[in-house]
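Standup notes, protein team

Yesterday: finished cleaning the Galbibacter orientalis DSM 19592 set.
Today: Exonuclease, DNA polymerase III, epsilon subunit family structure.
Blockers: none.

Input for Exonuclease, DNA polymerase III, epsilon subunit family:
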Amino acid sequence: MIRFFKKHRPEDPDFWKAYEAKFSEKLPEFIDENEFIILDTETTGFDYDKDRILCIGAVKLKSNTIEVANAFEIYLHQEQFNPETVKIHGIVKNDPENTATEAEAIQQFLDYIGNAVLVAHHANFDIGMVNHALKRLQLPKLKNKVLDTMTLYRATRINSNLIDRNKHYSLDELAENLNISLKDRHTASGDAMITAIAFLKTISRLYKNERGKLKDLFKIK
């Protein structure tokens, strides 16, 4: 007789349990009552399995205000190095000196984001990179709800009859169209700040004369 045994994950670490516990709280109904974490990652490339995160940058947004003094930025120790991507993010090997392991970075990131709604530009990539880091740590995927500024911004253009609804806007295009400075572009913290400003401006366009509800943002495709 052949017996199949269910594979059990090792007991979850305390930091993951603390993170999971925060999701017992229900998110507020209105957009302006919620806390959003706007994030960006710089990576060695675009392959989820082979490439690694070099830096995570994030800012908090609450009550339509970006909490600049409460920003998050962490550099990871480079176990892999791709000289081609240095041309984009400018992070050379072993620079800066103060780096964290992948496990340390993920732990600090989870503590920072809590159960807040995550926002990123082309969010699938950044969230995917974090989820693959979690997988390597034998942990589940992120539990947070996620919004993509590309999708939200495209909805403002569709409503104005200005666009092909299948167009994929780059962050540079958003910044240009929304009159946002591209200073510090292609750094995780800089791109997170640009995305945060784009998110605020996009929300104001979507809800010009009304108080928007969070659930409606997730209906935008």
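Follow-up from PR in the comments: Confidence is low (pLDDT under 50) at residues 1-8, 85-92.
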